[in-house]
Amino acid sequence: MRNVAPTKTNLIRLKDELKFARMGHELLDQKRNILVLELLNLVDQAVEYDEKVDAALAKAYAGLEDSVLAMGKLKVGALAGSIDVTSSIALKQRRVMGVALPVVQTEFKAGGPYYSPLDTSASIDNAVAAFRDALAMLGRSAELRVSIVRLAREVRKTIRKVNALEKIAIPELDETLHYIQNRLEESERDMFVLMKMVKDRLSRPDSEVSQG
Amino acid sequence: MKYYVIGDEDTVLGFGMVGVDGRAVSDAAEAEAAFDAATADPEVGILVVTERAAELIRPRVDRYLFSDEFPLIVEIPDRRGRVPGRPTTREMVNKAIGIKLG
Fold first, then answer.
1. Are A131 and A60 in contact (CB under 8 A)?
2. Residues on chain A touching B43 (C-beta within 8 angstroms)
3. What is the β-pairing status of strands B2-7 and B44-50?
4. Does B33 lie at the interface with A, CB-CB under 8 angstroms?
5. Would you say residue A212 has pLDDT above 70?
6. Which residue of A has its CA nearest to B15?
């Protein structure tokens, strides 16, 4: 319970405060629900997507291994330098209840044939294609993962706030309000009795007080 | 912005084929240096780290993952597959918010 003087002003002030806290609690509760929903949605997507990424990467590594076996690591390395694929990322933001979530878009620019088909293995073509697919998926994977981490953190913060209001702030205000109300009523009764006594005495004809 | 990859030699070579710069690392000091360089580069939008490389500098990677800064970090399995025993995304979320989601 808070230590406040039991006055009418404080009563009014605390009543307002309680109303405000209740409103905030309701809002935060809604926010929490929305965030959890969004988070669940994202987690489902991410789990599904992770499997896809893993498969794409496994394929890419297998392709790379094939080409290394066929042509040797040095040659693959040299060819890698001549491959003219560039990727660029466009980052945007999406906001969910005030949390900034990234949205990643990956674009590829591929120049013509990068190397002579003579003396190179076909497996390297597959490897390049597979890696490009995997890279495109990684963008989305990063987006999901970072979104999840940020949302989870926000959810945790919101839950803490909701609990603080629900379990501490609102009960405390309630208790203080009751205390003040009781005290006010008590003093009102005191006053009432006092007045009665004064009236009583005034109305007694032989009283000394009535003459003074 | 662009991708940047930190991992073992094969991973870096593979992503090198599709025009992604990267640095091959084999121990914690190298990984740390590469990580610092990559996170300091404003051009890097997404940092791809293999799980085994990330494991070498786990606290730093995690700290970055939970911050609001760029680059975004994504961990991928390397040629040998996922590191066993890493928490899944769902477990990570459950732990982070302390309640069980589905």
1. yes
2. none
3. parallel
4. no
5. no
6. A131
The count of domains in chain A is: 1
**Residues 102-131 (A) with a CB less than 8 A from some CB of B:** 102, 104, 108, 124, 127-128, 131
Domain residues for the domain of A102 are 30-147
Contacts 24+ apart (CB under 8 A), A67-75: A67/A121, A67/A123, A67/A124, A67/A126, A67/A127, A68/B10, A70/A121, A70/A123, A70/A124, A71/A120, A71/A121, A71/A124, A73/B13, A75/A120
Residue in B with minimal Cα distance to A160 = B97
Fold of B2-97: Rossmann fold (3.40.50)
Structural Rg of chain A based on CA atoms: 37
Query: Where exactly are the structural domains of chain B?
Result: 2-97
Domain CATH number, residue A129: 1.10.287.3240
pLDDT tens for each residue of B3-43: 888 888 888 888 887 778 888 888 888 888 888 888 888 88
Contact B82 A149 (CB under 8 A): no
Nearest to A142 among B74, B93, B101 (CB): B74
- Tally the C-alpha atoms within 13 A of residue A106's C-alpha that lie toward its C-beta: 24
Which of the four pLDDT bands, split at 50, 70 and 90, describes residue A46?
confident
Tell me, yes or no, whether A56 lies in a domain: yes
Q: How confident is the model at residue A209 (pLDDT cuts 50, 70, 90)?
A: low
pLDDT digits (tens, 9 = 90+) for A119-157: 677 777 778 888 888 888 888 888 888 888 888 888 888
Residue B87 at interface with chain A, using a CB cutoff of 8 Å: no
Task: Mutate one of B9, B15, B18 to test the A interface: name it (highest A CB count within 10 A).
Answer: B18
